[in-house]
Amino acid sequence: MAQPLFDYESHLEACARQDDRAFQALYQQEAAQMLGLAITLLGRRDQAEDCVHDAFVQIWRNAQRFQRALGSGRAWIYSILRYRALNQLRSRGRTVELDDDFIERAADDSPQAAELLEQQGEHRELRRCLQNIERNRRHPILLAFYRGLTHEQIANRLTTPLGTIKGRIRAGLRALQECLHA
């Protein structure tokens, strides 16, 4: 018998009401995966553990800010982890050490990307939508997400004017949003 899908949204809403059991269930559901991602981003287990801990503290404290209408609960949780990790890297004067090939693999059909992105149905949908965006719009979005680069850093890296990069990111995000809500 298939196990029912975990309802992130309901658990976050329960956390907003200070429901300890919902928070524990959320932690049990995602802590291991979040730790794996944090280790990948930060390169050190001790720092990754601190980052995951800080992310869960923020999730608990800010659960009332989660809004179903703005996106999935799981994406909201991972955005908190991602920002915590990127802030930690920036405080060390570093960015995430991922090459551009990894970034592109996240949006293509390689077996490595499939393992990473097909863990949840929403990731398959996101990958499909990313594949439909032109490369010159997709690449800056992926550089911002996976490397944590600013618009200016992306413009420098791609040797493209800053205004063009901002426009491509805006257009790409708009296309991504339309695809995901279609």
TrEMBL record:
Q: Does the keyword Glycosyltransferase apply?
A: no
Provide the GO MF annotations for this entry: DNA binding; sigma factor activity
Gene3D superfamilies according to UniProt: 1.10.1740.10, Winged helix-like DNA-binding domain superfamily/Winged helix DNA-binding domain
Q: Which SUPFAM superfamilies match?
A: Sigma2 domain of RNA polymerase sigma factors, Sigma3 and sigma4 domains of RNA polymerase sigma factors
Question: Would you kindly state one Gene Ontology biological process term found in this protein's UniProt entry?
Answer: DNA-templated transcription initiation
Q: Taking every annotated instance into account, which residue ranges of this chain make up the domain RNA polymerase sigma-70 region?
A: 26-95, 130-178
> How is this protein named in the record?
RNA polymerase sigma-70 factor, ECF subfamily
